[in-house]
């Protein structure tokens, strides 16, 4: 029952709703004691031939009034108890989502999206159940069960009550056992089904690869096996279900058997009337639900507690990247300087960056190149504070990025990541993501700068074309250019293009870079690229290797030095010459 203590803060907060709900629930239980009693009285009256229309009418009116009260009470307690539990789910869901938005990318790297989704859905549902069904089953099993037993003892016979109650603990135990078994098996069946779903999704998405490698048969085999697994797990659920109902029916039957046989003896001996036995049997029927509820309660609270524990554990994780004490509340701008002595990722021993020292004047362009894994993305992401550097500092306009508020720092930066992401929304909405109120004129202006305007017009619905999961499929290059337009719309002080031109052709790349140059007066740009033509006009080019700067300078000086940069540049020129059929874009 720890979950009720754990959720005490919420029950306190909603005490009036719960109190009213519980009072009406108990009122409802109390009223339900009446019909069996009335039936017994009427049966006895019939037997004694004392039932007059007036007596019958009186009881009918009483039952009708009780019915109306019970109806109203039932409506109120459901509203109060279930309403509160749904509101608790909303509160936890909001908290969790808010918490997720505060987390740094490292948090999401360490966890599977599927698990986080499960916490936001299944776990919250289990806690909601504890705060709704849990309270209902707790109150019902205690109050309704108690009232029925008291009615049986006081209105009928304590001896018969004792006899009839013998199988009841088994009923509660069987309910608890089978409900738990059913839940576990159902969970396994669901997990198998979602795995099968993932498999189908992956197969459809990757159908080209499967066909290209001639793996259709192997995939079909794997699917057949997984499908059989889903079937066997569902049959296990059906088996548990098939055992559940007959067991309960059997135990209930035992209760009736005991009460009717012993009750009949009492009636024959004259210690009980037929009417009382009738009432008793009806009360017995009313005792079944509280006993089932008692059994269910264990499962509900157990699941609720485990789920609540998982949610709390998630909520306790503090965001790694936070505003430092006294952080300034303004958007930084000015010259950029990097002074990184050492940056080591958690669980790594070799630094990802070492001795990175350079400066850029406001408005200049930096080019970062190097082999894959040389540290280009790490260097650029440090500026965004996706993670913090303990041994080093980055300054903008002479001010450490750690001394301004995170939100303001990010306002200063437009970041186009390597793994661009478009939402399932229109192209216009995707471009205006960081500025939802942007005018169509501005959206079109940045789309032109990113060289995507003409492509967009080719779609039937133009800027209103829906993209992403539920929309049209765009090429990698189109996605990249929409991402660039998105970053340009906020007209950032510092624009970071992290290998964001890799999927566009050299000619388009050239056009975009020229447009940036012409339109970003006095604004700084940091570009990392594999294709060196993307950074050849940069004011400063850094060549990274194993996290260290191995070459630095302008294109001309690096060419003159004739090291990795120069040889790579010549090789890429040659490749481009072959691809373009003899045209070199410089
Ligand atoms: P590049 O952008 O030049 O390909 P990265 O900056 O992505 O290089 O990676 C530099 C090095 O840091 C690589 O060895 C990579 O494995 C490592 N690295 C990158 N991101 C992480 C991370 N989140 N955790 C641990 N190591 C990382």
TrEMBL record:
<protein>
    <submittedName>
        <fullName>ABC transporter transmembrane domain-containing protein</fullName>
    </submittedName>
</protein>
<feature type="transmembrane region" description="Helical">
    <location>
        <begin position="59"/>
        <end position="77"/>
    </location>
</feature>
<keyword id="KW-0067">ATP-binding</keyword>
<dbReference type="InterPro" id="IPR027417">
    <property type="entry name" value="P-loop_NTPase"/>
</dbReference>
<dbReference type="InterPro" id="IPR003593">
    <property type="entry name" value="AAA+_ATPase"/>
</dbReference>
<dbReference type="InterPro" id="IPR017871">
    <property type="entry name" value="ABC_transporter-like_CS"/>
</dbReference>
<dbReference type="Pfam" id="PF00005">
    <property type="entry name" value="ABC_tran"/>
</dbReference>
<dbReference type="InterPro" id="IPR036640">
    <property type="entry name" value="ABC1_TM_sf"/>
</dbReference>
<keyword id="KW-0812">Transmembrane</keyword>
<feature type="transmembrane region" description="Helical">
    <location>
        <begin position="280"/>
        <end position="301"/>
    </location>
</feature>
<dbReference type="InterPro" id="IPR039421">
    <property type="entry name" value="Type_1_exporter"/>
</dbReference>
<keyword id="KW-0472">Membrane</keyword>
<dbReference type="InterPro" id="IPR003439">
    <property type="entry name" value="ABC_transporter-like_ATP-bd"/>
</dbReference>
<feature type="transmembrane region" description="Helical">
    <location>
        <begin position="162"/>
        <end position="180"/>
    </location>
</feature>
<keyword id="KW-1133">Transmembrane helix</keyword>
<keyword id="KW-0547">Nucleotide-binding</keyword>
<dbReference type="InterPro" id="IPR011527">
    <property type="entry name" value="ABC1_TM_dom"/>
</dbReference>
<feature type="transmembrane region" description="Helical">
    <location>
        <begin position="248"/>
        <end position="268"/>
    </location>
</feature>
<feature type="transmembrane region" description="Helical">
    <location>
        <begin position="135"/>
        <end position="156"/>
    </location>
</feature>
<dbReference type="Pfam" id="PF00664">
    <property type="entry name" value="ABC_membrane"/>
</dbReference>
<feature type="domain" description="ABC transporter">
    <location>
        <begin position="338"/>
        <end position="571"/>
    </location>
</feature>
<feature type="transmembrane region" description="Helical">
    <location>
        <begin position="20"/>
        <end position="39"/>
    </location>
</feature>
<feature type="domain" description="ABC transmembrane type-1">
    <location>
        <begin position="19"/>
        <end position="303"/>
    </location>
</feature>
